[in-house]
């Protein structure tokens, strides 16, 4: 770890509404308030700005503390008290080099995990008060997949494979990566290390034996090599068990193998008593593999630890005798993606594993899909919640209804949000004007904007569990009696915290089509809070 520090003195001609000796502060890391580190070594530059926001008098910084950086050599030089003139600011920069994910955990003073997250908080004080400001750092393994409810689908022909994401609501696909060297199938996405494992039945290695490959989020493919046990078979299905082992099945011989993904050790193998399912995936609720027996149009369950396979349930006539792929969501929802009698269309079904039956969710242009994969088991540590910004709640009424089911959302000095209509009115109305067209004062507009982010934050806490940072900001928002500038800063930080889950897929139960027109129809042209 290498460190350096330096002082910079900036002149900021920013007008202020302050009426007493006051200071404000801001912390950023590499010029961002929320930094995600994916490559190592990484240089983190913590930039801390203290501003005098009094309009006419100098303000004196009496103390400054940073518990996170102090053990690394951070110190204020010269030590407080330090007087900052009117319209001036003092900036301090402190640089740390993060050598690895483990080093990130050490610097952040948190336990090592697959995803390390910490917050740097600066506290400053003066004669008449104090202020805190912070920035967040998240360190993740380089180019690994985020373990959430994202569904991945492959389209493979020869030595070419395209990997895409599949939206189970709209059935829209988004390209992730492609290769012309490895035609791979039998995908399994590991919640242990964040890599996608697959079998390349056809590739340019020159080896006739199928190879095990490991794919990262950037599309880089590591050829882990072939195994004698893979020879002479075409491996079409794959999944990851709760212990991280990789289970694959072949098409013609009905063979199956369970592999250690780190060593490629064979942990189990055998032959199925019937044809191999054309789709299988591990159920996170019972750690068993559920598959679709295409030649029977029925479901099966397979336990690779005992080798027992059981066909069960009714014939799924609306799915039919078609090749399929499947994936589980983390709540146990089972999705089946199949060819149809129309060669130009594919269909997505949700299968009820308890009562039987398949519900058609939609059809889309055929992808010549090879396989589906998802991260069915949530990671035990470091999982980021799928929090959403205000725009999500503006257009997803079902989410608002679920948010308000436990009770009203209190907004401090403003009326509580009781009904969905109350929530939509707050989210859609302008901070500057009431729905009746009256202009709000600057303080009223700021409180309205803060109320919007507060409602969004409470819904994020109720639906997704939120984050410690979000909980702290919501507490500050509910108790503050500060001036317009303080309210505005809170609103800005809450907005940033509410938007930090956009890279995480929504749980299947909260995915629905946006209905902005319907939401607007429910608003009545009356004054809003």
Give a quick set of tags describing it.
8 helices; globular; signal; 4-stranded antiparallel sheet; 4-stranded mixed sheet; 3 domains; Immunoglobulin-like; single chain; 529 residues; alpha+beta; disordered N terminus; Neuraminidase
Question: Can you give a write-up of this model?
Answer:
- The protein is an alpha+beta fold.
- It folds into three domains: 19-141, Sandwich (Immunoglobulin-like), CATH 2.60.40; 151-374, Kelch-type beta propeller (Neuraminidase), CATH 2.120.10.80; 384-528, no CATH class.
- It is built from eight helices and 32 strands.
- It has helices at 101-108, 390-395, 397-404, 420-428, 442-464, 468-479, 484-498, 516-521; strands spanning 3-11, 23-29, 34-37, 42-52, 59-61, 63-65, 82-84, 88-98, 116-126, 129-139, 151-157, 160-166, 173-179, 182-189, 196-203, 211-215, 221-226, 235-240, 246-250, 255-259, 266-271, 279-283, 288-293, 298-303, 308-312, 324-328, 334-339, 345-351, 358-365, 369-373, 409-411, 414-417.
- The strands form nine sheets. A four-stranded antiparallel β-sheet has the order 1-8-4-2. Strands 3-10-9-6 form a four-stranded mixed β-sheet.
- A hairpin with a 2-residue loop joins strand 9 and strand 10 (129-139).
- Helix 5 (442-464) runs antiparallel to helix 6 (468-479) and helix 6 runs antiparallel to helix 7.
- The two termini are 51 Å apart.
- Residues 1-20 have low confidence and may be disordered.
């Amino acid at each position: 770890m290498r460190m350096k520090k330096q002082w910079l003195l900036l002149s900021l001609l920013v007008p202020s509404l302050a009426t007493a000796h006051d200071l404000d502060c801001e912390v950023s890391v590499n010029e961002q308030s929320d930094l995600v580190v994916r490559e190592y070594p990484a240089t983190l530059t913590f930039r801390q700005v203290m501003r005098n926001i009094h309009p006419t008098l100098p303000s004196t910084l009496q103390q400054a503390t940073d518990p996170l950086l102090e053990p690394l050599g951070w110190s204020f030089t010269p030590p407080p008290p330090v007087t900052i003139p009117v319209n001036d600011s003092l900036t301090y920069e402190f640089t740390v080099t993060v050598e690895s994910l483990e080093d990130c955990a050490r610097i952040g003073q948190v336990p090592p995990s697959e995803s390390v997250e910490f917050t740097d908080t600066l506290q400053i004080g003066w004669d008449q008060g104090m202020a805190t400001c912070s920035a967040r750092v998240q360190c993740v393994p380089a180019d690994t997949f985020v373990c959430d409810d994202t569904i991945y689908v492959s389209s493979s022909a020869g030595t070419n494979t395209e990997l895409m994401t599949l939206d189970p609501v709209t059935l829209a696909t988004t390209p992730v990566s492609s290769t012309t060297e490895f035609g791979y199938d039998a995908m399994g996405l590991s919640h242990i290390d964040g890599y996608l494992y697959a079998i390349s039945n056809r590739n340019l290695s020159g080896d006739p034996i199928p190879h095990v490959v490991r794919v990262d989020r950037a599309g880089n493919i590591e050829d882990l090599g072939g195994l004698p046990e893979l020879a002479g078979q075409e491996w079409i299905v794959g999944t990851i068990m709760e212990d991280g082992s990789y289970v694959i099945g072949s098409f013609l011989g009905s063979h199956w193998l369970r592999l250690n993904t780190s060593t490629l050790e064979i942990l189990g193998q055998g032959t199925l008593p019937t044809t191999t399912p054309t789709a299988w995936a591990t159920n996170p609720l019972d750690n068993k593999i559920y598959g679709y027996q295409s030649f029977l149009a029925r479901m099966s369950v397979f336990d690779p630890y005992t080798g027992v396979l059981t066909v069960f349930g009714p014939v799924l006539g609306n799915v039919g005798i078609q090749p399929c792929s499947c994936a589980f969501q983390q709540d146990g929802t089972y999705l089946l993606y199949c060819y149809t009698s129309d060669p130009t269309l594919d269909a997505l079904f949700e299968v009820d594993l308890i009562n039987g039956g398949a519900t058609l969710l939609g059809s889309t242009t055929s992808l010549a899909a090879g396989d589906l994969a998802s991260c069915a088991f949530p990671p035990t540590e470091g999982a980021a919640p799928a929090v959403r910004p205000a725009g999500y709640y503006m257009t997803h009424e079902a989410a608002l209804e679920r948010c308000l089911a436990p009770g009203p959302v209190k907004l401090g000095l403003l009326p509580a949000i009781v009904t969905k209509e109350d929530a939509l009115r707050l989210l859609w109305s302008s901070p500057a004007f009431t729905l009746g067209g009256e202009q709000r004062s600057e303080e009223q507009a700021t409180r309205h904007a803060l109320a919007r982010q507060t409602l969004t934050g409470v819904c994020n806490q109720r639906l997704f569990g939120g984050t410690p940072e979000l909980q702290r900001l919501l507490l500050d928002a509910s108790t503050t009696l500060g001036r317009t500038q303080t309210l505005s800063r809170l609103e800005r930080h809450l907005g940033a915290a509410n938007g930090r889950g956009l890279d995480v897929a929504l749980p299947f139960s909260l995915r629905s089509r946006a209905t902005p027109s319907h939401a607007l129809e429910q608003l009545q042209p009356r004054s809003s809070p």
